[in-house]
């Protein structure tokens, strides 16, 4: 063997040694990654679950207000209709009936406006809640 061949062999052995050491270090890092992976997956799943739970709570609240408003409006209309019908039936005076019809129209317009306002406010509040939730999620993902 020539000196050049011995030098090449020494270089190859040195490269193999360095490569072997790098392989061992990478295996150690890979074991660390695999050990940490379940914790990271749990954090991601928990964050996703909390996000879904927040969305469901927001939707439930919106539907509760919408349904509650509809129910109250329905009962309110039933009571007011009954009241104005009784006044009209029991009243023998045409002037009282006319006044009752005018009061009924005014009442129905006012009540309808109130319930429409509640529905609009409910939608706006939940639109705002959606925006706030999205901004909060963006901040969490950028951290």
Keywords:
143 residues; mainly alpha; 2 helices
What's the short story on this structure?
With 143 residues, the protein is mostly helical. It is built from two helices and no strands. The longest helix is centred in the first third of the chain and has 88 residues, at 3-90.
Gyration radius, in Å: 37 Å
- What's the domain count? 1
Quick check: average pLDDT?
85
**Share of helical residues:** over 70%
Low-confidence stretches are: none
Order of helices and strands: HH
Strand content: under 5%
What gross morphology would you assign? rod-shaped
The number of helical segments is 2
Profile the largest sheet. Answer: none
Helix/strand class: mainly alpha
Task: Report, as a whole number of angstroms, the end-to-end distance.
Answer: 61 Å
> How many β-strand runs?
0
Give a description of the structure.
This protein has 143 residues and is mostly helical. It has one domain. The chain has helices spanning 3-90, 94-142. The longest helix is centred in the first third of the chain and has 88 residues, at 3-90.
Fold topology:
Blueprint: H1 3-90, H2 94-142
Helix pairs in contact: 1-2
């Amino acid at each position: 063997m020539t000196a050049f061949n011995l030098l090449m062999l020494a270089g190859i052995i040195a490269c193999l040694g360095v490569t072997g050491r790098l392989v061992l270090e990478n295996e150690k890092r890979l074991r660390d990654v695999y050990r940490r992976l379940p914790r990271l997956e749990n954090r991601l799943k928990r964050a996703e679950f909390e996000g879904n739970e927040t969305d469901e709570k927001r939707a439930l609240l919106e539907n509760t207000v919408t349904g509650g408003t509809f129910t109250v409006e329905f009962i309110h209309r039933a009571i007011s209709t009954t009241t104005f019908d009784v006044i009209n039936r029991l009243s023998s005076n045409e002037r009282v009936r006319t006044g009752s019809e005018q009061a009924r129209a005014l009442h129905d317009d006012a009540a309808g406006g109130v319930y429409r306002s509640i529905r609009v406010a409910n939608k706006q509040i939940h639109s705002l809640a959606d925006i706030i939730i999205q901004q909060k999620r963006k901040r969490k993902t950028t951290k």
